[in-house]
Specification:
There is one protein chain. This protein has 21 helices and 25 strands. It is an alpha/beta fold. The protein folds into 4 domains: 74 residues, Beta-Lactamase (2-Layer Sandwich), CATH 3.30.450.20; 95 residues, PAS domain (Beta-Lactamase, 2-Layer Sandwich), CATH 3.30.450.20; 159 residues, Reverse transcriptase/Diguanylate cyclase domain (Alpha-Beta Plaits, 2-Layer Sandwich); 245 residues, TIM Barrel (Alpha-Beta Barrel), CATH 3.20.20.450. Helix 17 links the parallel strand 21 and strand 22. Helix 9 packs antiparallel against helix 10, helix 11 crosses helix 12 and helix 12 packs across helix 13. The longest helix is centred in the first third of the chain and has 30 residues. Bound molecules: ligand C2E and calcium ion (2 copies). Ligand C2E binds next to strand 17, helix 13, helix 14 and strand 21. The site of one calcium ion has 4 residues, from loops.
C-alpha cells in the first residue's frame, strides 16, 4: 500500500521478503521510468505490470514481477494502490540458463561442425534407424552423396553393403554400444576404407577414410612377394618347378614314405637338344624346351612332380605306394612322346630322350643323391643307344667314375702322343683301285690298350677336346697323304662340334699349306647334324671350306635325321651311305631302297656315291648293281696304321 502522495510501500508480499522501502529506494535507477509510468496508469484508474529488481536481506539481487492496481473510492476515483509482488528470480534464472544452454549448444555444434568439416576424415552420423543425419563434405565426396541423402536410410543408399563386414560391424557397435575399428572394401564404390564407428546418444558416428591406395599398394606388394616366391621356386622359361622346389617336393614326399613305399626319381636328357639350340638359335631352343615341358606335364599323373633342373635336364618325382610298380611305363611314354616331331614356328625338329631312374630310400635319401643316381642310370641309357631308359644299379657308379677318369686321361692323351691315325682305303668299284683313304683316329691308352673312337670321340665332343684333337687329325692326315701318290685322296671326319670353333677354316687351310697337298685331295666328311637346321652359319663355313678347294662328303647317310633334302641344301661332292644299310644287303628291302635312292640321286645331282662297311662279295655286288662309285669295308681292308697303308697303296701301284 502506499499513500497517494508519497511513494512509500504500505503492503508487500512476504514471499518477496522485502521490507518497507520507499519506492525510490527500490530497484535500480534504471527502473524509475517504469515505476513512474506504472504509477501514472494507477492514478488514472488502470492497473499496470512491470518487472524490477530489488535486493534482499542478503543483498542478493532478485527479480520481481509487480502488478499494480488502483483501489477506487466511492466516487470511483483511485485513492490507493494495490501491488502484488511475485519473486521471479528463479524462473528468470532458469530461463537464462536455458538460453545460455541453447547458446552453448549452438556454439558447440558450430565448433564441432567446423572441426568435422576441417578433418581429413569423412564423417557420417546415423540415427538409430540408420537414417543419415549428418555428412561432412569429405563424406559426401567419398560416398558420392549429395545433401539430399540426408534423412535417407543408409542401407537404401548402399544396398550392396547391407550384408558385408561394414554392416555387420556397425550393427554390432550400435547394438552393444561399443566402438568398432576395422578396414573393409566397399564394393559399391570400389574403395577400401578404414572405419571407426562409435555409438552416440542418437545413433552412431562413423569416421572413415579412404585407404584404397594403401591397400592396393599392399596388395601389389603381396602379389610381388608371391611372384618372387613363385620365381624362386620355378623355372622362368617353362614355368615348371626348379631344382629348389624339386628338392622341397622330394623331402615332402620322403616324409610321407611309410613301410615299403618308395619314391622314384626319373632324370631325363634330351638327345639332340644342343644341336637344335646351336643351329636354329636360342629362341627355337627355348620354344622347344617349353614344348617339352608341356608334353612332360601331359604324360605324368597328378601326384607326380615335373621339374626343370637346368639346360635340357628335366626330372620327375613319382611317389610309389607299397606294391606300386616301377615307373617303366612312364619312362617309356616319356621317350615316346619326346621322340614325336616338334613343330616350332616354321621348322620341324626331331629330338630324342633318354631316362635314368633311381629309387628312394634304396638309392639315397636326399634329392641330390637321387638325382646323381638317376643321372648315372641316364648316362647308361644314353650309352645304350639313346631313346631308352635304365634303372640305377650300384655298379653303374663305378662305370661313371671310369668315364670321368677317361675324360681326365683324354685331356693329356694328345700331349702325350697317345693318339694315332689309322687309314682305311676306299676302292673305286670300276677300277678296283684305291681312290682314297679315310683317316680314323685311335687312342693307344697306356692301360686299356687301343681305345675305339666310338668310345672316346663322344667324350671328346662333350668336353670340347675334339677341337684340338680334330686339328691334330687334319694336320697329321694331310702330312701323311703328302707321301702318297697324288691321285689318292685323304678323307677326314669332322665333328659338328668343330663347326663351332672359329678356327676351323684356318686350321684346314694351315693343314693344306703345311703338307703342301692339292686341296682337291682332301675330303671332309660331315654328318647330317651339321645341316640339321640348315644353319646359315654352318652353311657359310661349308662354303668357305669349299672355296679352299677341298671336297665335302656327307657321311653316315641314312642314320640321323635322314632327309634327302639335306643333299639339296648344299652341293656335296660325295655321299657315303652308312654301313648300317650295307649290313643286310642284298636281301634287306628297306636298306636296298635307301641304297637305290642314293644311287639315283647321286647320278642326277652328279655326286660321287660311296658305301662303307662292305664285308662280303654279295654286298659288293648289290651296290655295284646300283651303280655306286666307291666302296669301303673289311672286304678290301681294315683300317691300317700309316706304314701299312703306304705299303698297300704302293703294292697296288706295282
Ligand atoms: P665312320 O666315319 O662311319 O667310320 C667308319 C667306321 O666303320 C670305322 O670305325 C671303321 O673301322 C668301321 N668299318 C670300316 N669298314 C667296316 C666293315 O666292313 N665292317 C664294320 N663292322 N665296320 C667297318 P672306327 O674307326 O671305329 O670309327 C668309328 C667312328 O669314329 C667313325 O665312324 C667316325 O664317326 C668316328 N671317327 C673316327 N675318327 C675320327 C676323327 O678323326 N674325327 C672325328 N670327328 N670322328 C672320327
Ligand atoms: Ca667317316
Ligand atoms: Ca659310318
Amino acid at each position: 500500500m502506499m499513500n497517494r502522495a508519497g511513494r512509500e510501500i504500505f503492503g508487500i508480499s512476504e514471499q518477496a521478503g522485502v521490507r518497507a522501502h520507499t519506492w525510490s529506494s527500490i530497484g535500480k535507477a534504471s527502473d524509475a521510468p517504469k515505476v513512474d509510468t506504472a504509477f501514472e496508469s494507477v492514478r488514472q484508474g488502470r492497473s499496470a505490470r512491470f518487472e524490477l529488481t530489488v535486493r534482499d536481506v542478503q543483498n542478493t539481487e532478485r527479480w520481481m514481477d509487480v502488478i499494480a492496481a488502483p483501489i477506487l473510492n466511492a466516487r470511483g476515483e483511485p485513492f490507493r494502490m494495490l501491488s502484488i509482488w511475485r519473486d521471479i528470480t528463479e524462473a528468470k534464472r532458469a530461463n537464462e540458463e536455458v538460453q545460455e544452454a541453447r547458446y552453448e549448444a549452438e556454439a558447440a555444434a558450430e565448433r564441432l561442425s567446423a572441426v568435422l568439416e576441417s578433418t581429413m576424415d569423412s564423417v557420417m552420423l546415423v540415427d538409430h534407424f540408420w537414417k543419415v543425419r549428418y555428412l561432412n563434405e569429405n563424406a559426401k565426396r567419398l560416398l558420392r552423396l549429395r545433401e539430399d541423402a540426408m534423412g535417407a536410410a543408409l542401407w537404401q543408399l548402399f544396398p550392396r553393403e547391407q550384408r558385408g563386414l561394414f554392416a555387420k560391424k556397425c550393427r554390432k557397435a550400435m547394438k552393444e554400444r561399443s566402438p568398432a575399428s576395422f578396414e573393409d572394401y566397399i564394393a559399391s564404390l570400389d574403395i577400401w576404407v578404414e572405419v571407426n564407428a562409435s555409438p552416440t546418444e542418437d545413433g552412431l558416428s562413423v569416421f572413415f577414410r579412404d585407404i584404397t591406395e594403401r591397400r592396393r599398394a599392399e596388395e601389389d606388394r603381396l602379389l610381388a612377394q608371391k611372384q618372387i616366391a613363385h620365381m624362386a621356386r620355378h623355372d622362368m622359361l617353362t614355368g615348371l618347378p626348379n631344382r629348389l622346389f624339386f628338392r622341397e617336393r622330394f623331402d615332402q614326399a620322403l616324409d610321407r614314405v611309410l613301410g615299403k613305399a618308395r619314391i622314384a626319381v626319373l632324370c631325363l636328357d634330351l638327345d639332340g637338344f644342343k644341336v637344335v639350340n646351336d643351329t636354329f638359335g636360342h629362341p627355337t631352343g627355348d620354344a622347344l624346351l617349353r614344348q617339352v615341358a608341356a608334353r612332360l606335364s601331359h604324360v605324368v599323373s597328378q601326384t607326380d612332380t615335373v621339374a626343370r633342373l637346368g639346360g635340357d635336364e628335366f626330372a620327375i618325382i613319382r611317389p610309389l605306394p607299397e606294391g606300386a610298380q616301377a615307373p617303366s611305363a612312364l619312362a617309356h611314354r616319356i621317350v615316346e612322346t619326346l621322340t614325336e616331331p616338334f613343330a616350332i614356328d616354321n621348322v620341324t625338329v626331331v629330338i630324342g630322350a633318354s631316362v635314368g631312374i633311381a629309387f628312394a630310400p634304396g638309392d639315397g635319401t636326399s634329392a641330390e643323391e637321387l638325382i646323381k643316381a638317376a643321372d648315372i642310370a641316364l648316362y647308361r641309357a644314353k650309352a645304350a643307344g639313346r631313346g631308352t631308359y635304365r634303372h640305377f644299379e650300384p655298379a653303374m657308379g663305378a662305370q661313371l667314375q671310369a668315364h670321368q677318369q677317361m675324360k681326365l686321361a683324354l685331356r693329356d692323351a694328345l700331349d702325350r702322343g697317345e693318339l694315332e691315325l689309322y687309314y682305311q682305303p676306299l676302292i673305286s668299284i670300276q677300277s678296283k683301285k684305291v681312290s682314297g683313304c679315310e683317316a680314323l683316329v685311335r687312342w693307344r691308352h697306356p692301360d686299356r690298350g687301343m681305345v675305339s673312337p666310338d668310345v672316346f670321340v663322344p667324350t671328346a665332343e662333350e668336353t670340347g677336346l675334339i677341337v684340338p684333337i680334330g686339328e691334330w687329325v687334319l694336320k697329321e692326315a694331310c702330312r701323311e697323304a703328302a707321301g702318297w701318290p697324288s691321285d689318292v685322296s685323304i678323307a677326314v671326319n669332322l665333328s659338328p662340334v668343330q663347326f663351332k670353333s672359329k678356327r676351323l677354316v684356318g686350321v684346314v687351310a694351315a693343314a693344306l699349306a703345311s703338307s703342301g697337298i692339292d686341296p682337291a685331295r682332301l675330303q671332309l666328311e660331315i654328318t647330317e647334324s651339321v645341316l640339321l637346321d640348315e644353319s646359315e652359319h654352318n652353311l657359310e663355313l661349308l662354303q668357305e671350306l669349299r672355296s679352299l678347294g677341298v671336297k665335302i662328303a656327307m657321311d653316315d647317310f641314312g642314320t640321323g635325321y635322314s632327309s634327302l633334302g639335306y643333299l639339296r641344301s648344299f652341293p656335296f661332292d660325295k655321299i657315303k651311305v652308312d654301313r648300317a644299310f650295307i649290313r643286310d644287303l642284298p636281301s634287306g628291302k628297306e636298306s636296298l631302297a635307301v641304297v637305290k635312292a642314293v644311287a639315283g640321286l647321286g647320278h642326277s645331282l652328279g655326286i660321287t656315291t660311296t658305301v662303307e662297311g662292305v664285308e662280303t662279295e654279295d654286298q659288293l655286288n648289290a651296290v655295284n648293281r646300283e651303280g655306286f662309285d666307291e666302296a669301303q669295308g673289311y672286304l678290301f681292308a681294315q683300317p691300317l696304321p700309316a706304314s701299312e697303308i703306304s705299303k698297300l697303296i704302293t703294292k697296288e701301284l706295282e
